[in-house]
Amino acid sequence: MISCILKTKHNIFFAFLLSFIVSFGAFAQGASEQAEVATRGVEPGATEGASEAGAAADPAVLDAGEALFKNNCAACHSAGSDVVVGPGLQGVTERHDEAWLLRWIKNSQSLVQSGDAEAVAVYNEYNKQAMPSFAFSDDEVKSILAFIESGQGVAQAPAAGPEGAVAGENVGQDAVGAVGGYLDIILVVLIIVLIVLVVTLLLISSVLKNYLNKNRQLDAYDAEIVNQRFDLSKIYKSKAVRTLVVLIFVVVLLDLSLDKVMGVGIQQGYQPRQPIAFSHKIHAGDNQINCNYCHTTVYKSRSASIPSANICMNCHSQIKTESPEIQKIYRAVERNRPIEWVRIHNLPDLAYFNHSQHTQVGGIECQTCHGPIQEMDVVYQYSPLTMGWCINCHRETPLNTEGNAYYDNLVKLHEASSKGAFTVASNGGTECSKCHY
Amino acid sequence: MVVQSVLSATINYKLLKVFEFSRYNMQDRIKYWKGIEELENTPEFAKHAHNEFPEFLPLNESKSEGSSSGASVTNTKRRDFLKLLGFSVAAVSLASCEAPVRKAIPYLNKPVDLEPGVANWYASTYYSQGDYSSILIKTREGRPIKIEPNPTSTLTPLGTSPKTQASVLGVYDNNRLRTPLIKGKEAEWEQVDSQITSALNSVNGKVAFVSTTIISPSTKKLINEFGGRFGNFEHVVYDPYSVSALLNANGGVVPGYDFSKANIIVGINADFLGAWIASTPIAKQYIQNRKVSSDNREMSRHYQFETRLSMTGANADVRVPIRPSQEATFVAALYNSITGQGSNAPEGIDKKAFDAAVRDLRANRGRVLVVSGSNNPAVQTLVTAINQTLGAEGTTIDPASPYYVKQGNDAQMIRLIEEMNAGTVGAVFFYNANPAYDHPLAARVASGLKKVGLKVSFAERVDETAALVDFVTPDNNYLESWNDHEPKRGYLSLTQPALSPIFMTRQMQDSLLAWSGSNTTYYDYLRNNWRPLATGDFNTFWEQSVHDGVLENGASLLAVNTAVINPMSVGAALSAASSSSATSGVEAVIYEKSQIGPGNDINNPWLQETPDPISKATWGNYIAMPRSMAESDELKVVQGDIVRVTLANGTALELPALIQPGQASGTIAIALGYGRDLESMPVAKGLGANAYPLITVSDNALIYSVPVKIEKTDANSPIAQTQTHHTVMDRIVVQENTLAKYKEDPKDVTEYVRIATHDGPAKPATISMWDDYEYKDHHWGMVIDLNSCIGCGACTVSCNIENNIPVVGKAEVLNRREMHWMRIDRYYSSVEHKEGEYSKMEDPADNPAVIFQPMLCQHCNHAPCETVCPVAATMHSSEGINQMAYNRCVGTRYCANNCPYKVRRFNWFAYFDNEKFATQNYMMNSDLGQMVLNPDVVVRARGVMEKCSFCVQRVQLGKLEAKRERRRPKDGEIITACAQSCPTEAIIFGDMLDPESRISKVLVKEQGERAFHVLEEINTQPNVTYLTKIRNLA
């Protein structure tokens, strides 16, 4: 009988071991997948998928075109075929000849006024929305056209825009979700197995005790061992245990208070009510409006800038005009009083942060710091915005040196002296005066 | 062993004497000193010199100023301590609960060309009281925050004057008028317009428009058109510091001086680098042929004969003190010697120097320039004759292009004052004019105004004159205005507004147009006036002109009154000059401080706190006197004793005495502009005394020197001088040599310290305990040419504005706590003969040589400050910049104690948001003033160290722009504020790793010749290099 019991115990043990290995494996897999997604998100991926599409054109021209397009055109035009404010520009060079495009881009209104049939048609088609004139040189316009022609903008748009981030985020969440469900089942099974195990062991112990007391002649010494009683008060009175408990209590308390103190001034998760219930989910998520369309200076300035009411009116002069929230914008315009948004991301005065350094030069996605903004109905502070958080990123993130002549020599020097990645920190990115002056 | 001694040298200079100097190239050692107290090494000076921070000073001032900054530190009682403790605990717990809600308020309708966070630049022009600069205005979010020179201009492409730099604050002055005033009461423009128009319609008598010099062609035209409808109209022009005699002797204009073409310059009481006429364009010309290199070993020789030690005199190669009463005889003697009618130096003037000047002038015909700041018609007639005789016309004086920056006519103004008193003036307008203060006949102006029917002032604040008029119709600040300028014939420039008017002010020209019943705006008037200049499409031309800020195609618009009243003949001048006799008593000269001018910008705290180039005094005027006079038995004063000055007619003023080396014996000097007692100028209120009454009116001319009686009073008042603050002890920090030596061997003009080692003398940098930094990306550095620095202080003001440096006020300057990151050290020097007994031979303070040295953080590669900071708040960057992290600093001040250059500053107080500094430091303490702060630089808190950062915000921005455009930064793109504003290009900033940069080329060229590091022997390896000053001694 004993052997039989032992055998079952063996089986249970094996089952336990097996399930443990399986679950750990699954968990590890999930973790590595997550890590991969994370690095992919952080890496400046903007240039990756693009190079194949526009292989023919000079990359320098394309780069220039891309920069000009992003800063000047992307607010109203997509490089694909979808209409934002103005038409999608895919195939625009086939629709119109270059000379006409040059004139149109430099000063569309004069072209319309001159009565050019083509121009008037375009003007009327898009609700007589005048396109501002641009003081570009011919070469600059041609570089933009080359960029559009290359199709890079289309290939890139998902990566640059919120859509790419949506995809990336979903991949990460799906993986976590899948692994998470699996883990729950394993956990429940494990707990049941453990309870069964404990009960079984207790049964065995009592059976053995009874057996020994009844069937064997035990001397006093053995009997004492067999009939040993578990005395709780002894543990309770033990100095060592008391010290340990006190110690653990103190450590936990200290840890908690330190955590709390270090958290003073950190507003991670700060989600104030805004004067207008603006939803980033509707704009950036569902309608996929490029961040740059509203935050116009995000590639040019230290400030990303909160859009002025006239930017809202670009669309909302026609869209959802009856909504009470949008009425608030009308009222602001009528009263000539700007909208007072509540500032969510508050960096102290002593820290200098420049958006264009990170977006334009570093190629960092908005979501890297601002989180899944395209899913936020009400925006909250996603990152802690602490110095440790900044520094950490500077230590880990490789510099976006590709195609930037500023870094050419530095990359060479770095490769000659070090095998590690050329991170922001290895170019002096953790020095005081980079952010504090 | 050797290394040890190098380190200890940082502690005591005496150890240096064990070092083997490579050369002793001077028989007699030059002794440098910053003030009399240092020269004499008084016990008090010695005691303070050893302390970086004057611990002897009370932290809680009770005597100097009434208000206190909080709980007393020394008298804290136990209960107070507990209260403070309780309060701070409560404050901390409160603060930790919830961060305050901050608002982010975007534009309602964003202007098209304005991006938040990106600076916009507008070309414009600054002109005030003879000081002219073509400028670029930097605006952020529509607020002007900085002024830089306009490189498109050929007159002032390099830098600006200190006044120009500081003028950006004027628009944010809370004491400007917010509405027009009618008899001192706030009014609406409609009321003002209707009342003035009706008053003008019934005007009885002469209509006078009084202004200081106007160089705007359109404004002048408009004024004349405005006056055209009155039967009796006169536009009266006067200058507070008049050059009437100069104008009269030169056909009504300031001659078109070109100092860059002169080999020999003789200045006679003319502070042409300071405050005389158009100092910025002249400084640029002057320095052009005083820059030397081994390829070009020629430079001009500058003689200066003057009474007070001016900034110009400090730059002269040969300076001779003369008394004002000797000026006429001196000029007459000079004229006679030049024309060969006898060559005797007048009595009492250094004959050697006089003869040398005459010899040089005669030997360099056609390449000479003689200028005089005198307002004596005889002197100016003779100076013009001398220049003509020596063939200056056509070379060093361009007759086709005179300066228009001063046009004041003394006689005209005096006549108007008499007419006002006679009651024949029916209406008077004051534009940029304040004769009730800045004219010697101010009292007569006040009495005359009572008899004038219609009195209008366009003053921006209630100044002395505006307080006496019926209507004050405040003019816009120049940053809010449209205007044009012609400082020199053929050089036009435009002023464009950088922001809309902040207050309910209106540009003077628009007011005139409104009162003439015209519907056009001045902007349209201006455009129309420029229409004839256009070649091709006018709009294109206009846009281009506004964009460039200047139009220098030779076109001229300004009409100047060139009628000369009674020109003096040379003969008459000669006899008048020769017959003038020297006075034996004390003579006073009245002068303009180069940073204060005649006193119209007196409410600007930046200018008040910028030390005078020579006396290094701030916040007020004083009586500068030579040491011989101060120590004379009749007077016996020490610095700060109040002295009473009395004129023969009984006019008197009292001011503290300042002992000024180089002041001619038997003379005193008093600056204009002070002694204001108006609520509209709180910054200047109560500072100094008004010296305008000391100017005498003789023969319809203003004379700026006068015999006086002086006597000591019992009172005293300390002068806030910075000269011996932050002294560098007795170490050799400046280097100079003669042109003769430089011509002989450029490698022999600079002393290089060598350290004795077993292997012979070695450069200090080769013996080091520290590892060197490796620079890969950039290595920022600066070269300062001591030969080019004229000591004007534009860099100091520019640095203050760029870096949000607080103004601390007179009391704190007296406590030696000024915050300037950059200062200009002014050293007097005298030759210390080997015997060391110069006291027997001559007084070194009689006429010392002067050398200026801009001093700022040297960004040492082996920085002594970095190693002593206990919290690593100051450290080295990978680009060679010595960084300072303010929020890591805990204020131990070890770094400052260990800095051999004394360039670190400690924030003793919170200078912002502080009642105590609300007046002097209003740019940090009022909502309006704060608009001028640089949003890219943090305002430092109390208790932290700060210092020059090499304008790291500009470095970072420049790099970012390059990165955004995917290229390397271009040389000259990244430049510090001091280098950008220097009118003589004395400061070069750049990347020393870029072999093509200007700084690299200069360093390569000057290595071993003029380039030296200050205190090289202590092996701090600075990134700032100085170039030895070369003097062209006679």
From TrEMBL, chain A:
Protein name: C-type cytochrome
CDD domains: Cytochrom_C3
Name of one Pfam family that matches: Cytochrome_C7
Segments forming domain Cytochrome c: 60-152
Transmembrane segments: 185-208, 240-258
Organism expressing this protein natively: Pontibacter silvestris
Signal sequence segment: 1-28
Domain of life: Bacteria
InterPro entries: Cyt_c-like_dom, Cyt_c-like_dom_sf, Cyt_c7-like, Multihaem_cyt_sf
Keyword Protein transport on entry: no
Record key words, sorted: Heme, Iron, Membrane, Metal-binding, Signal, Transmembrane, Transmembrane helix
Keyword Protein biosynthesis attributed: no
